[in-house]
Fold this protein.
Amino acid sequence: MHIVIMVGQFLLAISILVGLHELGHLLFAKWFGMRVEKYFIGFPPKVFSFKWGETEYGLGAIPMGGFVKISGMVDESLDTAKMSGEPESWEFRSKPAWQRLLVMLGGIIFNVITGVAIFTMLTWHYGETYVPASEAKYGIVASEPAKAIGLQDYDKIISVNGQPIDRFYEVLTSEVLLGTKSYYTVERNGQQIRIDIPSDLAERLSEERFQKAFMLPAATFSVGQLRSGMPGEKAGLQVGDRITAINGTPIRFFNELQNKLKEVKGQKVNTAVTRSGVQLFLTIEITSDALIGFQPKLDLVEKKVEYSLVESLPRGWDAAMEVVFVNIKGLSKVFTGEVSAGNAFQGPVAMAQDLFGGVWDWQNFWRMTGLLSMALAFMNLLPIPALDGGHCVFLLYEMILRRKPSDKFLENAQKVGMVMLLSLMGFVIFNDIFKRIF
């Protein structure tokens, strides 16, 4: 069921976004009087279709894309049989270049509108919940990649790039992760220390992303939900208990408990617990995975900010544009060699697992769908012949030089672009599978 939910969320999101993207092309084409022969969500073989007016609408069996076929246009179908005759008034090729440019941008425009609308509605409906930076009063818990750049457990983050932070997540925004010459100022043992952030931090975190967060606030804790049949429940641990020591070793923060449990995994330990102000001692047999079997309730007070619909719009726009910024910066780091292509590009397997997961959460589903919508808009704007961006380059060439590329040139460019796209798809799918097997 976990896999079914994960795949189902991913395919639903892709189908929605592809459908809206192709709808953008269709509506702009019809607005300018072009004949749209087909509008399909999914690739052949065809599952079903119906005809309404001049257009056949249908659903393909492979739900990883879609297409519209506009008369008189050299596209991925490479159907050039009708291009030898004189252009008809309702054909793509007979229309002014500016109209053809808007048709090619139609899908991207619709994806941007969709992304902004999703982030705006999420902000309006859910508001913003975050951990204030002041809650990290005990400092941070540093992961191995964080320690590798010089951070230590219980360092207190004073500022990022010289600017004080209000929200804890600001310690690792895209500007920090993908920027240049970024640095932390931390307080350690009463002294302020500068920690430079290496330009390849994104690469390091790509390799560690399935293991743990880069840094978290150090926090005291109590026992939250207990897992049935696990050692904690069997030993009599209760919700609300506070674990204060393991085999005499004092425990204050949750990361201290995790570290101690790794030392005693598979053993029975004497556990000091405070319950309603009374100290108790329980004997708990730690699993071989270093687990007791409970969800911690961290003593972190989250803050929630609510926005009106009007206030949510600029925040939705900023969130959507942030996705574009991240893609631009990430792609630039691939070209400069700071991030490997294998860690930068994700295929359908990685996206389904990393973005959506195996639990159906509508808030997360729409957030990830908004993210994918903006990523799809960005990727389609790249100047690759088989993508919308490639068509736009040729149209801008025509508009500037007043000279249209030949149909033969456009056909060959389309073929080259298709080879590039299929090669990239093959690479990311193979990369996904390889990383999960090895």
Summary: The chain is about 45% helix and 20% strand. The first helix runs from residue 2 to 31. The chain has a mean pLDDT of 85.
